[in-house]
Design brief:
This is HTH-type transcriptional repressor NagR. This protein is α+β, with helices and mostly antiparallel strands. The protein has helices spanning about 5, 10-25, 35-45, 45-60, 110-115, 155-160, 160-170, 190-195; strands at about 65, 70-75, 80-85, 95-105, 120-130, 135-145, 175-185, 200-210, 215-225, 235. The strands form three sheets. A six-stranded antiparallel β-sheet has the order 4-5-6-9-8-7, sandwiched between helices. A two-stranded antiparallel sheet has the order 1-2. A two-stranded antiparallel sheet has the order 3-10. The longest helix has 14 residues, at about 10-25.
C-alpha cells in the first residue's frame, strides 16, 4: 500500500513544511526564506518544483516574493478579511435560485451613468431570487454591459455566480471586485418577493467588477432579508488548504 506522503505532490509537502515553520514561530515575520537553489538542495527537488511550492505559500498569504530580493515571511494581516458570498448565509442549507427575468434595456443613459457604464447605452439586467428551502433569502439584480454576439445560457443566468457571469460575457478580463455593504428599507416590491414587512431594514451588498483598464464590466446589487442572511468572513482563508 502506498503511504500517504508518497501520494502528496512534492511541492505541496515543501509548502506544508514551511507553513508549519511559520505557524510554529521557527520562521518569523520578515524572515527571508532560503533561495530556490538552497531549498532544492535541502529537499532534493528541482527549482521548478520549489517554485510551485513557493507559489502555493504566496497564494495562501504566508509569504511575499520581492523580485531580485527573495521570498519573505509575512505576518498574518488579521484586519483584512475575505468574504465568501457563495457560502455565506444564516443556514448550512445550500442556496437555490429562481430566475425572475432577463431584460435588455436600450438607450437609458441615466441608468448607464448611475452604474458607471460611461459610453454604453445598452445593458442586460438579470434578476433572480435566492432561497433556502421555501424561504426567500435575497433578491439579486445583475447589470452587464451588452456584448453583441455573446449570448448567455439560461443555466448561466440562473446558477452562475456574479463574477463567473461577468467573465463569461465580457471581452475584457475582470481583475477587481469592489464591494459596498449598506442598510436600506425594503420597497413594496422587494418586501413582497422576500415575504417580509415593507420598510423592514435589509442588508444591501453591491459589487462592481472592473477590467484592467479600470472600466466597470458588471454591477450586482443584492438585497438580503435581515433574519435569513448573514455575511461571514475570514482572514487568510487559503492558508487552510495547506
Amino acid at each position: 500500500m502506498k503511504r500517504r506522503e508518497n501520494l502528496i505532490p512534492v511541492y505541496y509537502r515543501l509548502a506544508e513544511d514551511i507553513k508549519h515553520q511559520i505557524e510554529s514561530g521557527v520562521l518569523k515575520d520578515g524572515d527571508l526564506l532560503p533561495t530556490e537553489a538552497q531549498l532544492g538542495e535541502q529537499y532534493a527537488i528541482s527549482r521548478m518544483t520549489v517554485r510551485q511550492g513557493i507559489a502555493l505559500l504566496a497564494e495562501a498569504g504566508l509569504i511575499e516574493t520581492v523580485k531580485g530580493k527573495g521570498s519573505f515571511v509575512t505576518r498574518p494581516r488579521l484586519n483584512q478579511l475575505v468574504i465568501d458570498l457563495k457560502n455565506s448565509g444564516a443556514s448550512a442549507d445550500p442556496l437555490r435560485y429562481k430566475l425572475l427575468h432577463v431584460n435588455l434595456i436600450r438607450n437609458n443613459q441615466k441608468l448607464t451613468n448611475e452604474l458607471g457604464f460611461i459610453g454604453e447605452t445598452n445593458i442586460i439586467v438579470v434578476k433572480r431570487l435566492m432561497l433556502r428551502g421555501q424561504l426567500p433569502v435575497a433578491i439579486e439584480e445583475k447589470f452587464l454591459r451588452y456584448q453583441k454576439g455573446k449570448p448567455l445560457l439560461e443555466t448561466q443566468l440562473e446558477y452562475a455566480d456574479f463574477p463567473e457571469l461577468v467573465a463569461k460575457h465580457q471581452d475584457s478580463v475582470p481583475v477587481r471586485n469592489d464591494m459596498i455593504i449598506s442598510v436600506a428599507s425594503l420597497s413594496s416590491e422587494q418586501a413582497k418577493l422576500l415575504e417580509a414587512n415593507e420598510l423592514l431594514p435589509a442588508l444591501v451588498v453591491k459589487q462592481v467588477i472592473y477590467s484592467r483598464e479600470d472600466k466597470p464590466l458588471g454591477v450586482s446589487i443584492m438585497v438580503c432579508h435581515k433574519d435569513r442572511f448573514e455575511l461571514t468572513a475570514t482572514s487568510y482563508p487559503l492558508s487552510g488548504r495547506l
